[in-house]
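Q: what sequence does this backbone want?
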């Protein structure tokens, strides 16, 4: 284990923990059971103080703990080695304690992030009319204007370009009018190429992290990755205005309201400005977003931690599907974004199941959690899109053409992934 820029670095090839600690971690991971009764990890001994420079980036008007997060260096491949298993156990502990962890970017990943950031700023700098034209009525891809997205009934100030699976109009799924399926309305070929390369790289990291989670939970290899074949991976390219340059549609200082995310994993990267807050797992708190909306939950209460920007890392936290599949051992992390004194740019990549997948509890983690028949990911994603974008052209077309009904058809459901 090493310390880099004040953060704990876990590196598989460097033997991240002393051997005695490794053996304990591996034993604990291998004995994880269906009852979802893994003990909650203790708080880390290392914490930053509100007086540190990191806290100085916190958006004004917010109060939160500033906690130093564990940072991991992913192995090039997951072989199931002793060091892999130690890292996997440590990652599960970090999520159960903090709700979030950091992964160190490789040099290639830094270059891809920087190129994508340039493309993002170029797009958001376009005239409003040009941005408004980047919308498709079949998919939820494309431009989302500030104030268009709704969280818990309130407009968010975020300005977004969403990238979903980019499908040709001639694709069978598009031709048959599957909900949410369609082309991505890229503004130009350059942004498509740059953001596409960035997403492909994050997708590879997502698969590596899922394999490590399988090790950390003690479930068979492929228990998670079998769901991600042709996964419904997507990304939100985000711009937040400065708190003093908003359009009056939302709530003072709020960029995005408290919510959890839909799928398996969220891999996010932010610039140097800062604005991300997460809510770690807490005794007595559980948000089953697939049953009752978690939007706005605990948004104005204490218990949040601020995630200060750190150069050269991306953050990772679990989504709704992992919470359901692990019977709350890994909980979907509530998070929100505050507006800062400068505009802020960020990326949120979602590593997801196949749209048709009906996800089921993992082996050893089936405690009879509802719904007992599993969760149809495509229906869950569509429900969230309808809730967040009630007035979008895509929603209106989906409703007018009765596309939602198709989600119950065998063509759009794969119950075999169990």
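A:
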């Amino acid at each position: 284990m090493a310390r880099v820029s004040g953060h704990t670095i876990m590196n598989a090839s460097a033997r991240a923990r002393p051997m005695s600690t490794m053996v304990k971690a591996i034993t604990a991971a291998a004995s994880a059971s269906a009852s979802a009764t893994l003990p909650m990890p203790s708080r880390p001994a290392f914490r930053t103080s509100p007086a540190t420079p990191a806290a100085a980036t916190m958006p004004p008007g917010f109060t939160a703990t500033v906690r130093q997060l564990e940072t991991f260096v992913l192995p090039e491949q997951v072989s199931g080695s002793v060091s892999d298993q130690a890292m996997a156990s440590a990652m599960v502990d970090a999520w159960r304690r903090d709700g979030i962890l950091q992964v160190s970017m490789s040099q290639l990943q830094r270059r891809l992030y920087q190129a994508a950031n340039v493309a993002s700023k170029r797009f958001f700098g376009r005239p409003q009319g040009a941005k408004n034209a980047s919308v498709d009525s079949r998919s939820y891809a494309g431009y989302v204007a500030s104030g268009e997205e709704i969280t818990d009934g309130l407009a968010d100030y975020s300005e977004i370009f969403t990238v979903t699976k980019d499908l040709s109009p001639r694709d069978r799924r598009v031709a048959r009018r599957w909900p949410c399926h369609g082309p991505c309305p890229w503004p130009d070929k350059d942004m498509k190429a740059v953001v596409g390369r960035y997403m492909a790289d994050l997708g590879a990291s997502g698969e590596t992290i899922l394999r490590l989670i399988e090790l950390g939970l003690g479930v068979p290899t492929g228990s998670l990755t079998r769901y991600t074949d042709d996964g419904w991976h997507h990304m939100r390219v985000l711009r937040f205005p400065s708190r003093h340059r908003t359009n009056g549609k939302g709530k003072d200082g709020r960029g995005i309201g408290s919510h959890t995310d839909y799928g398996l994993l969220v891999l996010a990267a932010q610039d140097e400005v800062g604005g991300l807050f997460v809510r770690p797992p807490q005794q007595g708190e559980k948000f089953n977003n697939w049953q009752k909306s978690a939007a706005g939950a605990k948004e104005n209460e204490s218990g949040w931690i601020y995630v200060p920007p750190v150069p050269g890392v991306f953050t990772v936290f679990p989504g709704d599907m992992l919470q359901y599949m692990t019977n709350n051992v890994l909980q979907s992390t509530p998070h929100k974004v505050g507006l800062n004194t400068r505009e802020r740019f960020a990326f949120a990549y979602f590593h997801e199941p196949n749209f048709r997948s009906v996800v089921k509890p993992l082996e050893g983690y089936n405690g009879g959690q509802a719904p007992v028949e599993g969760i149809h990911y495509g229906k869950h994603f569509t429900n969230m899109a309808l809730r967040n974008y009630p007035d979008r052209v895509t929603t209106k077309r989906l409703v007018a053409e009765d596309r939602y009904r198709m989600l119950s058809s065998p063509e759009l459901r794969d119950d075999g992934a169990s």
